Amino acid sequence: MTANWMNQFTDFFPGSKTPLNFEETIKETVKGLEDWDSKPHIMTMNGKEMEFFTIGQLGKALGNRSPNTLRKWEREGTMPRSFYVKASDDPRGRRRMYSRAMVEGMVRIAKEEGVFWPAKGSRLSETKFTERVVILFQSLRSSR
To answer: What is the pLDDT of residues 73-87, one digit of tens each?
Structure first.
């Protein structure tokens, strides 16, 4: 009976749903994130073709976060709004679009700041994620 009781807790940290086998979890997480850029929207900017991605694709790249979460981050000022927009047939208006450099930059910053799970439990507000993403967006906007 003691062995069964012990086996219940060997797969997770005590009091948590976080698996102890991080390597397997990371592999599964990364496998799900690999295809965020499989269907880019190609648009011409200043005579040059560029790849753009939707807020849903950005959410997938940022650890499968929902578009609603990213919109909330925009409203709260956690994440700046994209300066790229695309006309839409949807009556709600235009679509946010993110360049490859924006998405890859945000993913790199999120990883470096510990925003991705599994992490040390860094709260987004306790990181420099927002500050660094604002700087990234500003530098990309000025280089257009």
So the answer is: 999 999 999 999 888
Secondary structure element (H or E) that encloses residue 139, with its range: helix 129-142
111 belongs to a structural domain: yes
pLDDT exceeds 50 at position 122: yes
Identify the domain containing residue 82 by its residue range: 38-142
The DSSP code sequence of 56-119 is: HHHHHHTTS--HHHHHHHHHHTSSPPPSEEE--SSTT--EEEEEHHHHHHHHHHHHHHT-SSSS
Tell me how crowded residue 110 is: count the other CB atoms within 10 A of its CB: 21
Evaluate whether residue 24 is within a structural domain. no
Number of domains in the chain: 1
